Amino acid sequence: MTKGANVVLGGLTDGDVESVVVSLGWVSPTGEGDADVSVLLLDENGKVRGDTDFYFYNNPCAPDGSVQLLGKTPVGEGSEDRIGFDLKALPDDVATILVAASRYESARFDELENLRLTLSDGSGEPLLTYEVGDAGGVSALIFGELYRRGEEWKFRAVGQGYEAGFAALASDHGVDIEDDAGHAEVVDDARAEGAETAAEEAGEPAVEQVTAPTPADDPGTPAVAAVPAPRTSAAEAVPAQRKTRPRTAKKKVTLPATLKKSLAENDAWRGARLFPVSALKSDRDREMRATSVLLAVMAQVPEFGRRLTAGFGAPAGRMETFTEVSLPHGDTPRRPDGVIRVERAGKLWTALVETKTNGNPLKAEQVQAYADIAARRGYEAVITLSNDVALEGSPLVEVKIDRRRKNKVSLWHLSWAEVAHQAQLLIRHEGVANPAHAWLLEELLHYLLHENSGCHGFQNMGPAWVPVRSGIQDETLCQGDPRALETVESWERLVRQVSLGLGGELGLKVLPVQRARRGTDAVARRSRMADQLCQDGKLQAELRIEGVTGVLGVTADLRTTKIRTSIDIPAPAQGYPLSWAKRIVRELAEAPADLHIETLVEGETGGPRGTLERLRPEPGDMLPKSGVKITGFRLSLFRSMGAQRGNTEAGFIRSIDEAVHKFNAGVLAHLDRLVGKKAA
């Protein structure tokens, strides 16, 4: 679509458009640029009806499920922010849905590339794409809008920007912005404390909400919406002003920082677990137990079940789950591992579930049969679940979908690592309102992480790994070798899994940075990486951690068998170089002694370098003798890589995971003020 164009949604598909998903995406040349997505619901006059019509990172879901900010999902060039809309659930007096994004601090949209909006139906089938042209130096941008025309919904490509930021955009549409300096701090503090203003999926009261005054609180005070505050670094943050209204909401439950002292008589006693794993003897046992455990917890913990199914187009409603269901299919009935059903307003959403554990691959004929059954019976989705990680442009199994059928079946994949990641975020960081739900999630997480569960995630680099590694060391691997491409795909799966693990540990979004030219698809990008692997013998990746300036670099050098983890710190805008050097050494007092520090200088390949142990007594050794301008500092840790493919201590996959976590715990954890780590 082009700017200003509009289209009737019903004319884009043969099916219904009761549910749609809008994805906003962009590419940052530096790998660090990002923006916050927001949604405004407007009446016929183009104004919000009240402060509840504004959805953003701290208010991501409407109580009726009509608007749901689904978060980021990985794509070939980084990630996209996805928003789900249940158009049937929207109140009749909502005439327009405004979809926008805003940047923070002094950032502008002209610093980003490939600004785009994609609209898909509930099955995930893309219906239209709008590529925003030159957005200009604006800090807030309306990508598009959905609006009613009679009984139909239409979409308009807007592309309108605001130099004054989101405050100006919000004011234009009737959002009253409180002129109290403390208000922005309260909103930012609420976000830092873990989405305390988000409504519970189970329909319970919001937890410790931080809200602006409403007419019900004070008849003389107009309704005020909580506008996202600019993000500030932890060093610049000031104590937030707390609300004075009494708190009546329930306190969220998270895992305690330190466990209570055990009442066991000795260490040989093991606590009773809800989901035991000791009796699991075969892969079939593991698949059946894992499926039943997961689906049972999804049904009993609504916020967790909703977290896993929202991205698949499922509505917000009452969920029931089933295992070992028999469904007719020719002469031989099929028994999918599980079924998920969600009921909302008398309508059912159904997904068939096929699981694999212990590294077993999905079978194309099984998934194809379930897709055919789902299409015939009017089911909406087939969800596959295994240790493998799906990549854009490289499906795990090839399944043919009959597009002639009116009922479209969407095929989705979850890795066990993603399931564990979502459980970690809820129980260890965001919290849940019900203590029983918290305990169930804790038991699920213990089960998934147990060595005998078979749900450990991606664990094998594949059959091409050993020949490629040997070929690089012997210098016999040639460009164009298909085994190099297989290795790059395995590496990308590993990087995505490491991102999930680190994000679950930190409670922050951690996403791989995919640097690619505009318009380059995922398959072409991997082919280029495979050629580069044959040339220099290195597998490289970058991870962007929410709230951290700079990206975490990971390099596996197959020639030297060394793994390097690193991050670049920009030079401060003020002060003297010697003061910078002393400050770095001071902040890294608890970092590993073998941490390498390299001074980055202007116009040269590199400046002085040395280990932290050597530089501690003489920080001035970090400064170049020529007086050339310092642009930053690179911090790096090195370790040997494992050689085996399995889950042994020497395994390559484990060594990469441990290298990233060691760098985070030993370096990033001590650099809040240096790298600009912000409250999440």
Write the layout of secondary structure elements.
Blueprint: E1 6-8, E2 19-27, E3 36-42, E4 54-55, E5 67-75, E6 78-86, E7 96-102, E8 113-121, E9 126-131, E10 140-149, E11 152-162, H1 166-172, H2 181-192, H3 283-300, H4 302-309, E12 318-323, E13 338-344, E14 347-355, H5 364-377, E15 381-386, E16 410-415, H6 416-430, H7 435-449, H8 465-474, H9 482-506, E17 510-512, H10 522-536, E18 538-545, E19 552-557, E20 562-570, H11 577-587, E21 596-601, E22 609-611, H12 612-615, E23 630-640, H13 652-666, H14 672-675
Parallel strand pairs: 14-15, 15-16
Antiparallel strand pairs: 1-11, 2-6, 2-8, 3-4, 3-7, 5-6, 7-10, 8-9, 10-11, 12-13, 13-14, 17-18, 18-19, 19-20, 20-23, 21-22, 21-23
Helix pairs in contact: 3-4, 3-7, 6-7, 6-9, 9-10, 9-13
In short:
With 680 residues, the protein is α+β, with helices and mostly antiparallel strands. 25% of the residues lie in helices and 24% in strands.
Task: Outline the biggest β-sheet.
Answer: 7 strands, antiparallel
- Strand order, main sheet: write it out: 17-18-19-20-23-21-22
Count the beta strands.
23
Q: In percent, how helical is the residue content?
A: 25-40%
Mean pLDDT: 80
- Sheet-strand content, in percent, reads 15-25%
* Class by SSE composition: alpha+beta
Radius of gyration: 26 Å
- What would you call the quaternary organization? single chain
> Can you tell me the residue ranges where pLDDT is under 50 for at least 5 consecutive residues?
179-227, 229-250, 644-650, 676-680
Number of helices: 14
Distance between the termini: 35 Å
Rough outline: globular
